[in-house]
Design goal:
alpha+beta; two-stranded antiparallel ribbon; 3-stranded antiparallel beta sheet; 23% helix
Length: 154
């Protein structure tokens, strides 16, 4: 239930891999429903349920992006100092260079953190009742190739 098809495909593929590791047969929605499956372009409930019944699924797992936000923050700089014997650095260039070179300054910077909030729901396919639900937060995902490391998601 994510509009971004690239993210949706990555998420479904990774979840199917994790399910297979647990001897669970997973059917990915992109294999059975068009990628433009949205609220405005949704098949009828009967068409969806007939597709699921044809697959003989025990359950349906949905994952939805329920919120996203960003936060900009300042990360302060730091100075690291490596002590050197007293005043020996003034005698020549190499002594001076070797004294000051180990002192490293890391300037501060501004960064923006991105937060994504997901909700996962597991439904019994026979009576369509909710069996399990969880919400999770992902901070600064590196790319659309999301790794599923949520304990208990499958």
């Amino acid at each position: 239930m994510i509009r971004n098809v690239t993210v949706k495909e990555s998420l479904e593929n990774q979840m199917a891999v994790e399910a297979a590791k647990r001897d669970i047969k997973a059917y990915k929605s992109l294999d059975y429903f068009k990628p433009n499956f949205t609220k405005e372009n949704m098949p009828s409930k009967d068409a969806m349920m007939n597709e699921l019944k044809g697959l003989k699924c025990d359950a349906v797992l949905t994952v939805t992006l329920i919120d996203k936000s960003s936060e900009t923050r300042y990360v302060p700089g730091s100075v690291t100092y490596a002590p050197y014997p007293r005043f020996t650095y003034y005698g020549n260039f190499l002594g001076y260079y070797n004294h000051w070179y180990p002192m490293v300054y890391d300037p501060g910077y501004v960064t923006t953190d991105k937060y994504y909030y997901l909700e996962s729901n597991l439904y019994n396919s026979k009576d369509e009742q909710l069996v399990w639900s969880a919400q999770s937060e992902t901070v600064n995902p590196g790319s659309a190739r999301l790794r599923i490391k949520c304990a208990g998601i499958l």
